Amino acid sequence: MKKTGGWRLATGASSGADATGTLEPGRWALVRSAVDTAPASRTTAARDGASAAPTSNLRPAASHCFHCSEPLNGSTLTARIHGRDEPVCCAGCLAVAELIAGAGLDDFYRFRTAPSARPDADALEEDAWAAYERPDVADRFVTRKGELNTVALLVEGLRCAACAWLIDRVVSRMPGVRKFDINAATGRAYVEFASEALNLGQLLRTIAQLGYRPYPASDEAVAKVRQEERRSALKRLAVATFGMMQVMMFAVADYAAVLGGETMDPQLASYFRLVSLLVATPVMLYAGKPFFLNAYSNIRARTVGMDVPVSVALLLAFVASTWNTFTGIGEVYFDSITMFVFFLTLGRFVEMSARHATTAVTDALTRHLPPMAHRMHSGEVQDVPSVALSHGDVVLVRRGEIVPADGVIIEGDTSLDEALLTGESTPVRRAVGANVSAGTLNLQTPIRVRVTAIGEETLLSGIVRMLRRAQSQKPAIAQAADRAAAKFLRYVLLAAGAVCAIWLAVDPSRAFEATLAVLVVACPCAFSIAMPSALAAATGALARHGVLVTNADAVESLSRVDRVVFDKTGTLTRGEVRLQKCTQLGSVPVAECLRIATALERMSEHPIARAFADAAASSHDADTYRVTNVRVAPGRGIEGEVNGRRYRLGRADYVAELRHDNKADSVADEPFATVTLGGEREALAEFTFSDTLRDDAPAAVEVLHALGIETEILSGDVPSAVSQVAQRCGIRTFSARQSPEQKLQHVQARQASGAHVAMIGDGINDAPVLGAAHVSIAMGRGAALAHAAADIVLIAEHMTALPRAIETARRTMRIARQNLAWAAGYNFCALPIAALGLVPPWAAALGMSLSSIAVIMNARRAARATKDAGSGNGTRRGTGAAGAAGSRHSALTRHAAAATARSTAAVARQNALASAATPQPPAT
Amino acid sequence: MSILFVLIPLTLILVAFGLWAFFWAVGNGQFDDLETPAWEVLVDDEPRDRDAEIVAKRE
Lengths: 924, 59
Fold this sequence. Notes:
The complex is a heterodimer of chains A (924) and B (59). Chain A has 924 residues and is of the alpha+beta class.
């Protein structure tokens, strides 16, 4: 029974796609945020309540697609789900919905909490996965062990846990699948399957048919290392925590006796010491191992890191305590040791979690390249793996395919979506002789390309390299802090040595104790967590507000920012094309022109068609218009007869030709922003399109100005568009037509003149400049490579999150400075007392713990201050455990936020790939 | 107070057991994904499969 399920699924999908494959008018789904659809789910709540059908977490409105929550745009397709006919917007959604329902997995629609990604109808129809059925391609990704194959996949388009559940159900049912694990947070899946029953291509195709985008993961080694790191850090933390709690239990008995002025039963006291030693040993040797290893490598490199005095103090205290345990004379410091190790381990764990949560995308490059290329060989098309291409080969790139290598077009005239490289959404026209880059998407006609650069020589690889270099040149404030700490620590070591020498001269019996007291008291325990704890609290709070901090240094840098540089497309604007203005040129009213244009564009697959459809959504009259004899002039426009009259829609000169008016009145500067509609006798109307500004962008800019921060736009777009956006946002400084190199130079020039620059961008072209800025901020929906370079990712779809983040960063740094002052003050006050040998061991231990706790408590304010009403969770308990729980809590929140960021990024990129998101030349 | 000589080793054994269990869980990947499993409990088994099992049992 289970075995047949998979096959039924596969056939169901292909028939669904075939039956309706060509119907879909609005295939070019414009990027929409999940936020847009939120009100939609509310409106149908009442309807759901009345019916017996199972209620869903997310139910799109009747006028929106049941699967992806996009507007229906006149689609009459329906899919049968839960025994009801639900409307869907396109063939892709229909195929996926029918596949899900046909497999009896309708429950997916009840459990999901976010609308599904709109599947790409082309990807469902065309078999992009056939390449992976070939053993020579599959072997690059699959690990064989006898008959059993293991493969790691990355699945894009996961929006909530229900997606993971759906894929799990479907893939587990496939014949030959032995084991399937998928992580909803990272989209990483592991499949074990029998090689004779299944191959990689079938596996990927099945997942793709569900509306997701699977890739064989090629960064397995990195992921494995990261997993191992996390696991061992968890184990160390557990050992340190358990050990600390046990040792403190015995130590408290000792403190109580001393405070009460009593003496403990000597037998019991030595028993406690022995047990403490027993517990502290694994804490030292296992949990503390990284510190000793670090200190060792520091010493070998002849530098002084934080770990050197830590290790010295730990070793001294441990050896002395062990000695004292067996001799029964003097004090033991096991409580101090374990607590010290615990706090340090906790700090490192929080730091590591933050680091891991961010660098999810490591092989963005390979994912953007197709696995197979069509190589022309003596007039025939051969399918070869892309890696097998060499210089001088001629490859065929069909419509909707990604260019596999850099090259020159030798045949064909098309437009390419270069958004992955340039971040600018407007497709670019490329004719014979033009250069094309690997990773760009062919949108129109098939082209033949002579390969000029492959693999590492390609522009895409170059940009990745540039990014890495920029990252390595990053002005690291952390380095300065480290240098200061190293200096301080050197003084601590010197002070300890001096104290030791003086006491040896004065009273040798107290020398050791005093030296140790100095090391413990001066050892910057509270000092070392002062900064990280404030930062952890702040990053947790920011994550809850949709601002993901991926680099701990970023908060400090952000608090100093005095200039914010925006990349226009997709940051200040939404990256969607909208009809902005209709101007009547002839005798026909604007509304009628709009209907004619909409009817004409309905015949086209052009993204502008969607903008027309949106604009004319209220008037359905266009549906009744009969359009015949449609001819498309690539790059120029579309011609057709609407209700028997001939019209042209497109560039002004093309439209003018119809009325034999050869006067070129085309607006040369902005070929894509304006479209003209004309008949045989006169020009009728001019439509102006623009990218829409984010509603809150002007407000955000205003708040930034109020914070004393200057703003600036650096865009690759045409000057008129940039100046318009700048004007509407109130930004005075802007530069248009900037290449990635120019942007980089510009930002570096600003930095050289002393500005502290935050750069906001979303394209891969922004990656180098993002890497060079003091603080780099990427939009949640931008290219994944930009995320990899960014310190901060704005998941929230509102720009006002940015000034709020800056405010939070400033407050956090204030709190961190208070913490540092407190910790340093404590250290410096206690140091002379300890040096004089006046600090009893229990006081030193208690003082150290209380000082640490005070620091953590204060740090929590950074998180609470940004919340509307602080819950005060755990803050009044006044125990170390409460503070620790707080830090852990924020780490978990960040983890969850990272998941959201990842899936958002994945979805955005999927949409970009699938639908060539935004404007394009007006004609197809 | 001599009971402590029994109770403390007992706690240590319990702590050791707890740590061993935690290590096992970490090694088993229980802490690798803290998100998906939280959802799995909310998802019903497939009725069709359950029905099939019941039918199979009856037969």
